[in-house]
Give the backbone structure.
Amino acid sequence: MSLTRNGTSLLPKDNTQTQEEWSRMDSNLDQTLNFGVRLEVPTCTPWKAPIIWEEMFDPKLYDQTHAKHSTSVALTVFAVGRYLEAYLNKFLTSAETFFMPGLPVTYYVFTDLPEQVPKVQLGPQRTLKVIVVEKHSRWQDISMMRMKTISETIESDIRHHSRYVFCFDVDQEFKGRFGSEALGKSVALLHAHYYKLPKDRFTYDRNFQSTAYMETGDFYYHAAIFGGVWENVKNLTDTCYMNIMKDKQSNVEALWHDESHLNKYFWLYKPSKLLSPEYCWDESIGDKSDISVTRLIWGPKDYGALRNKPN
């Protein structure tokens, strides 16, 4: 069931552009990045994907190019149970200020409490759609089943309106620009708690019986944010859901649930762009020496109240 607020999404004017043309635009923009401006942090992966940090990009150039190409973005977020009351209003209102400024955005809010979705004042070319989902008894199942729901919504709706998709956890607040420099074919986020640690400290799933099993990897990615062109996000969510269901049939559950499966996916299918921890920072981390701007921060969490008590 889908409810729409503030009109309908706008179909991109140049919707006939091929995947190659969109890819070429992304590549041309990323060629303008200044990889040498941040010598204290890695700015490029071994497979030549950029890692986006403050000062590396010209925000006006990115915004103007994407506006010229009528780029539109879908944002998905799950607000189930007490998470809706605790986080959704702040997430949406802050997104209106900082997420993809100047571009058409459609918010897809997945919730079991549609009547409680806040009536946020949306700007021009901004749309909010509420999609009713089942609330599972275990928060782990809510986390893992979102992959299926996102894939289904991409197929039924998003692919007809938006070129890019970003998927977020709701317990976050935008604090600074999270703009078009983050767009790309396949986008992953460096986990704020792991990006400085050696690989042997990464908490990959080490269970041989799980389809998420990893002996080693490139980076440790945070499932709080992932994105890309809709085709790639659909492939990611389809693959993760398929592997989650395979594990269920074997009575196995990955260590960090959908995040473990996401890390396995990005190990096999390298992302074309990585976002630095600026794009999702935990203010409880003591060492902030690399972080000159926080674009999104983790919200305070009381898991006992959020996950275990009935509504």
